[in-house]
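Field reference: "sequence" (input) and "structure" (output). Example, Metallophosphoesterase family protein:
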Amino acid sequence: MDIFIIGDVHGCFFTFLKLLENWDPKREKLIQVGDLVDRGNFSPKTIRLAYEIQIAFGKQSIFLRGNHEQMMVDYLLGKDLINNWKFNGGAETLIQFEEEGINPYSYLSWIKNLPLFWENKKVFISHAGISEHAADPFDPNDNVGVLWNRKHLKNIGKLQVIGHTPRIDGLPEFIKNANCWNIDTGAYRGICLTGIKLKNDGSYLESISIPTDPRDID
């Protein structure tokens, strides 16, 4: 079965919906790299859509945890003592939840249990990737771990696919020495949201980029 991997959505609900039109659940596994929330105008709608997709399609759809989901979970659990999430888009997201009449705690259990990565024998997908510097890449508090890393990626013998660091030219980037695709193309910056299609063995099929719908950021 092929793999359809979607980059950072950041509350860009209508753009996300448009990109999902290119997903064929009968022959593709859907994997989203995290950062569903914050920055854009529709974080609650985006979370609800992702949750409903996973309920409907089960193991055919996988949503990974990004650093913004981690910040949200830490805040809702009372672990964010310096309001880090609020200063990184969370304040606006909380207002959106209130305006939608949705209690953010109703999704807390689902969000905090989102996996940090997905892999098979040839492909490894995470939010920010495995770097050469992480002592424990799966420590959610490690600033060079798979939630936060912005340093050079390690060639792990598999194709890595990540988001997290926006590509300001709006083009997904293949980093040859790290054997990695970065598919965050700055949806919340008004550029585009990108999905990449791979064969199960990591062979590239195509990338699809949807320009950010103005409703998502205006």
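The first helix runs from residue 13 to 20.
Residues 2-216 form a domain with the Purple Acid Phosphatase; chain A, domain 2 fold (CATH 3.60.21.10).
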